[in-house]
From TrEMBL:
Residues 485-543, 577-601 are annotated as: Disordered. It comes from the Eukaryota. Residues 6-104, 104-195, 238-328, 340-423, 619-702 form the BRCT domain. It comes from Aspergillus lucknowensis. Pfam families: PTCB-BRCT (PF12738), RTT107_BRCT_5 (PF16770). PANTHER family: REGULATOR OF TY1 TRANSPOSITION PROTEIN 107 (PTHR47667:SF1). This is BRCT domain-containing protein.
Length: 853
């Protein structure tokens, strides 16, 4: 990576998936594909609603939107998603442009801005350029047709005159616009800041601020819509086809009548989809609450999970959007955000659909939304602070905040501090109603709070299997790092902290957990993390005890769900919906899927008790497509493999063999390499299952010369090196990583840990323990020059560059040499299992300036 510009064709090493959408027509896609191919690249055109091609084969995805089904999987697999302009910019520079500056992700909210600066102070200029680059925009030193904004203090400057003389479509704005955008983390309307007559400078303090209608939340202002939508079909696509190839499950917890359910089912079928009541067959689950067997399984398998409002939105616009995109398109929890109980929140200065949306959002947080403001209120959420209501709230000592506090607390499902300046910033002439509804749900928060593997103590085997499926849904095979049920029980006896979210209603020890481990350090029941002998015995005892009491746990969990709970009396034998175990004549309730699953869980626990053949292979699997979306087949196949002596594991530390479709540069694959496993093709799994026999893995060794050439390594040599290194490749290395690195800090920390190094997040300070070098005997034969250097993994993003001087200062103060490097330095070493000098990977300010020129 990093040397593509030296090859005869610019895109030689690129295979790009071009995603068609309403903003990128098939004709345009074919033109882009031709340009790519003329310059040595390969391309595949994806037209929804067809099945998305296998992600693993692509180096880039080209799209004008992030609203396509595989966006999250592409992010997990570290595959950059870029707008078409990335290709044109690369061609004009004759080298591959930085993909981050061409991302369609709306979180990079200045990604359509190309800014140039007029006669403004140098300090302001640097700050604006840095902010624009960090939020996805571009900077041009000259006024060109590409520029969208000129930052200036007057229309009399040379650049402003040039814009007017040439009649360029460039908005001339005051620096205050960028300042307010960056403070809020949202792009607001430029009009109050535009020269020659900016409203923010001429408007009287008491002049009313205009109301702001917001189209972004139309159809997303309530989680429980009351009427069926009227589809808005395009003239090109005459009929509804958004459900083509999708299988939808309507959860019983929606509480809709049979007539409405039939109507919805007919619409889905007319749109090319199928309807099922089996979550394992579904690609999409529609449910009301973030709970239940179907919700957890579908979420762990990375299926689309949304509510009725989201389903209606798809029907209305006939275009797929992510259920994470709008907060109220995703199922709601039954319980409040911890800390929101007792809050009384009033709204001010929001109008129309934005007001309805925020009222429903307040209710969904568990707080009370009051129509009028009284002294009993705790918060006032307002679109601007120029009103009598705001003045009264401040006089009464209430918290006055904008809607971002509410949205982001809901997205992360935690009470965020009202003292954060972003939540108390109100631009002078802006009604913040215009940016309502732009906050997305936080996927990692949802996973850890609502469908992590340890959520279901009644089923120790099934949740971990379900979590393993998620790995198969990304070609890169990122590990999940979830504690299994055994870990969850043991954690109750150690330094545990109460779990928040859904499980906070339970108070017994087994629902406590220790702080989450690194995302890529996964565990399997037969593969514990390194621990003392006594803690291992405790874990084994807990696992054995769990198997013994599993039927009782299942019974308790079911009884607890009924009205009255477990405490207030039992049920008579004559009660129709009385819970019994192993009763073949028991009547089904409306929650049939839930009941079936619980019985399967108990049967699975019993099966675990039976004696099994000895394990000869601990197999880590990534990218096995035959299990994607089919949990039952995966469970059956894993049981069959176990009967052959193959134990499927999720922890790279415990694997003796790794199965993959190709050489992948992902955290899971890279971590496994450090342990020198035998690496086989995934065909090994298929053939073992087909022949029901333990075949010789050496007949299925992975051979991927193209990838080896691309990554500059030989797989066989890497494995030999790994076995020699014994996880000490990075022993003595002190590596720091910026917090917002692409791919996530946890991913890179796990790679460093797997290779014996020390990795910490850099937040403006460096902690260095020299005693480690002196106390470890193995360090005697280390290369001492390495230990005199301290490394920082970074990118050239402006927010990262700001940290460089501080890092150098702190490292020099420790009498060490600072090295600021691209992540490729770490990945190339970990993949080849050979030390690499940092010089070829180093980053500095001069290099960044040259690349911008």
């Amino acid at each position: 990576m990093g040397h593509q510009d030296e090859t005869p064709h610019l895109f030689d090493q690129c295979k790009v998936c071009i995603v068609c959408s309403k903003d990128l027509s098939p004709d345009t896609a074919h033109q882009l594909a031709s340009t790519l191919e003329e310059n040595g690249g390969e391309s595949v055109i994806y037209e929804p609603p067809a099945d998305f091609p296998d992600l693993a084969q692509f180096s880039h995805i080209m799209s004008n939107t992030i609203d396509f089904p595989e966006f999250d999987a592409a992010n997990d697999a570290l595959i950059p998603v870029v707008k078409p302009h990335w290709m044109h910019a690369s061609l004009s520079k004759t080298k591959l442009a930085n993909p981050r500056q061409y991302s369609p992700d709306p979180r990079l909210f200045l990604n359509d801005v190309v800014v140039t600066c007029g006669d403004i102070p140098e300090g302001d200029k640097d700050a604006i350029i840095g902010g624009v680059l960090a939020k996805g925009g571009l900077y041009n030193s000259r006024v060109t047709q590409m520029c969208s904004h000129l930052v200036d203090l007057t229309v009399d400057s040379d650049k402003a005159r040039l814009v007017r003389e040439r009649n360029l479509q460039v908005k001339i704005v005051l620096p205050h616009w960028f300042d307010d955008c960056l403070k809020l983390g949202r792009r607001i309307d430029e009009r109050p800041y535009m020269l020659p007559d900016p409203e923010i400078l001429r408007a009287a303090p008491d002049l009313p601020i205009r109301s702001a209608e917001n189209r972004d939340i139309v159809g997303a202002s309530t989680p429980e819509p009351s009427t069926l939508p009227t589809p808005i079909t395009s003239p090109v696509k005459g009929k509804l086809d958004v459900f083509h190839g999708r299988t939808v499950m309507l959860s019983p917890d929606l509480g809709i009548g049979s007539h409405l359910q039939k109507t919805i089912s007919d619409l889905i079928r007319e749109g090319g989809g199928e309807v099922t009541s089996d979550v394992s067959k579904a690609t999409t689950l529609i449910c009301r609450y973030r709970e239940g067997f179907a919700y957890r399984v579908a979420s762990r398998l990375n299926k689309d999970v949304g509510n009725l409002s989201w389903l209606y939105h798809l029907m209305t616009y006939n275009t797929w959007t992510s259920p994470y995109r709008r907060l109220l398109h995703y199922p709601v929890p039954r319980t409040p955000i911890p800390g929101f109980e007792g809050f009384k929140i009033s709204l001010s200065n929001y109008v129309g659909e934005a007001r309805s949306y925020l009222e429903n959002l307040i209710t969904a947080t568990g707080a009370e939304c009051t129509k009028t403001l009284r002294q009993q209120n705790t918060h006032l959420v307002t679109a601007h602070d120029s009103s009598e209501k705001c003045a009264a709230a401040r006089d009464w000592g209430l918290h006055v905040v904008n809607h971002l506090w509410l949205e982001e607390s809901y997205a992360k499902w935690k009470l965020l501090p009202v003292s954060d300046p972003r939540y108390t910033h109100f631009p002078r002439r802006t009604n913040l109603g215009e940016v309502v509804g732009q906050t997305r749900l936080d996927r990692s928060s949802l996973e850890s709070l609502f469908f992590a593997a340890e959520d279901t103590p009644s089923a120790p085997a099934v949740p971990s299997k379900a979590m393993q499926n998620k790995d198969q849904n990304t070609a890169a095979g990122n590990a999940l790092g979830m504690l299994d049920a055994d870990d969850n029980l043991v954690s109750g006896t150690t330094n545990a902290t109460p779990r928040v979210g859904k499980s906070r209603k339970m108070t017994d020890g087994k629902n406590l957990q220790t702080p989450a481990r690194a995302r890529l350090a996964t565990d399997d029941k037969e593969n514990d993390t390194p621990s003392t002998t006594s803690s291992r015995r405790s874990k084994d005892a807990a696992a054995a005890r769990l198997h013994e009491i599993a039927p009782d746990i299942a019974l308790y969990e079911k009884e607890k769900k009924r009205v009255g709970g477990v405490i207030y009396g039992g049920r008579r034998k004559t009660d129709e919906d009385r819970v019994t175990l192993n009763n073949k004549n028991k009547k089904r309730t409306s929650m049939e899927a839930q009941t079936e699953s619980d019985e399967e869980d108990i049967a699975e626990v019993k099966r675990q008790k039976k004696s099994k053949p000895p394990i000869t292979i601990h197999l880590l699997i990534t990218g096995y497509q035959k299990w994607v979306g089919n949990m039952k087949k995966e469970d059956a196949d894993k049981r069959q493999l176990r009967e052959l002596g193959i134990m499927v594991v999720q922890d790279a530390r415990k694997c003796s063999h790794l199965a993959a479709p190709s050489v992948l540069r992902t955290p899971k694959f890279v971590n496994a390499l450090a342990y020198g496993p035998v690496i086989v093709q995934v065909e090994f799994i298929t053939q073992c299952l087909k022949k029901n026999d333990l075949l010789d893995p050496n007949d299925f060794l992975l051979n991927d010369k193209d990838a080896e050439q691309r990554f500059g390594l030989t797989l066989e040599k890497s494995i030999i090196n790994a076995r020699k290194n014994k996880n000490k490749l990075l022993r003595g290395y002190h590596i720091y990583c910026v917090e917002t690195i692409r791919g996530g800090f946890d991913a890179f920390k796990s790679i460093v840990d797997a290779n014996g190094g020390e990795c910490n997040m850099f937040r403006g300070r460096v902690s260095y323990q020299a005693k480690r070098e002196e106390s470890e005997d193995e360090s005697e034969d280390e290369d001492h020059s390495n230990r005199k250097e301290v490394y920082l993994l970074s990118s050239v993003a402006a927010e990262h560059q700001k940290l460089w001087p501080r890092f150098r200062q702190l490292v020099h103060h420790m009498d060490k040499t600072p090295r600021i490097v691209r992540v490729d330095w770490l990945l190339d070493m970990a993949m080849s299992q050979e030390p690499r000098g940092a010089q070829a990977y180093e980053l500095n300010e001069e290099m960044v300036q040259q690349s911008e020129e």
